[in-house]
Specification:
heterodimer; A: mainly alpha; 2 domains; B: mainly alpha; flat
Amino acid sequence: MIYLQLFLSFLKIGLFGFGGGLAIFSLIQHEVEQYGWMTQEEFVDILAISQVTPGPIGINCATYVGYTATGNVWGSLLATIAIVIPSLVIMLSICKVYFVISSRFQHNIYFTRTMHMLRLSVLGMIGAAALLLIKPINQPSVSFIDWSSWAIFTVTCALTILPLFLKTTDSNGYSTTKRAIFSKTALNILSHPIILIVLAGIAGYIIYR
Amino acid sequence: MLYLQLFWTYLKIGTFTIGGGYVMLSMIEREIVDRKGWIDREEFMNMIALAQAAPGLIAVNSAIFIGWRIGGWRGVIATVLGAVLPSFLIILAIAMVFQNYKDLPAVEAVFKGIRPAVVALIAAPLIRMAYSAKITWATAIIPIAGALLIWLGGLSPVWIIFVTVVATLLYTYLVEKRNKKV
């Protein structure tokens, strides 16, 4: 019956998945928890690998969750197909009427307001996904086991957020020194998810080995 | 051969972009608009708006739109397979190999370091996303309430999406109706 569960769950995830890969994590997390397909450790490791391998994060995650839940390729295939089906049905219906609605829908107040509100709700979903990993309800966290975990978390957050605040232009819009541009470029490279995951892995190896 | 070209283009995009849908969009733009000239930039922008507005993965939605627009049914099959296949095969290979090594002490140590970083990679982008969603102190209630309901209340995120859509449509309808009367 796990195959039916997987199929229906990912169908639901495909149907309600708004706002990109991170928001879809929240939906997948809820299903994984509800059906107990895998341990918390396995789930977090899947999130890590989904983010650093090529392709859409949602597909990566679906394929991996399907494999881990069933232990074989058919689980992967089923989950991946299920997450794509709602997209196919809805996008193809939209495409058929596209030339009628063309670009006018973008100025429709019902559309713009719903999109704005959805973006806000999605923030909450992503926040909840993070909170559930920091402190799951009724069980100890597997992601945060000691103070070193918090140190890695803080440094990774800081490196991700820092490039947002580093300015390479002054108040008149002229670019500042070459050095500022260089440090911005360096920071942009350093704040790439892959680099951060690799660094955290090295830190883990040194600390916990 | 058009379908093969569509498949190949999306296969390339699926294989060489890391970081999900939004990163893929810029590469899709370069391949589909600049290099192949299959659709113009304005239509591409409309496509992005549609791909984001529709539920599902943005990369897959855009693949469906472009496949349909250029090659009809067969085009859709070509682009969706191209977008999904690299992910599927790469992840499957990793999952099978990782299964055998995950209990090694060294691998376990590495992942103990990676896990908190993963949480940070989920949490930290919230600041940029909140900024681009034009959040205010008043509207911050929506994500905060949603996060608490899911985290502490165990509510399914599906309900959050559902209630958001229905409530916004209803509210907009009522406001519009009142405005017409005045």
